[in-house]
């Protein structure tokens, strides 16, 4: 039986500072009850303890509260959004919260990226070089599909990716990765794409061996 990958994700949480050493706005940003909700595009709604809701535009460095609008101060709401991002409670601009479609952990993914949603441990990008755990071959990733191994039929074989003999032991609900063998990529103008369970492939640091033009033939 093949060894499967069990991704883990480590999140670092910033420790709260000694608020006695902070200025008033910074201390209030750390201690007051506020709820931060991402709105997309680098904008965040901040619900304050008073019941008011203000909108922080982080890329612009603005907030709709009177402290910022009238006094031009870096208000507690702007600071609180920065704290929430640093402690990974909300996504940074350009990211959105998601559940990894491969391992099920909570993660942040590019805001405009479509499914599947993958955490850093499971992610394979088009153009990545991957190692086949079974044959130790090198492949170039074309794409990670949203389909599961039990759903994708292998052309000319009549079996699903999950049922194929060399994929025994890999989860039937693995996402399917389309990839091209590195040798085929160098020899053929139109190399065939093969389908693999995601956990059968391991990203490797061999990117320098793949010419950019060859990589574009796979991902284009």
TrEMBL record:
Q: Does the keyword Metal-binding apply?
A: yes
Q: Which keywords describe this protein according to UniProt?
A: Metal-binding, Zinc, Zinc-finger
Q: Does the keyword Metal-binding apply?
A: yes
**Which InterPro entries does this one have?**
Znf_SWIM
Q: Cite the GO molecular-function annotations of the record.
A: zinc ion binding
Q: Which residues form the SWIM-type domain?
A: 54-86
Q: What is this protein called?
A: SWIM zinc finger family protein
Which species does this protein come from? Halosimplex pelagicum
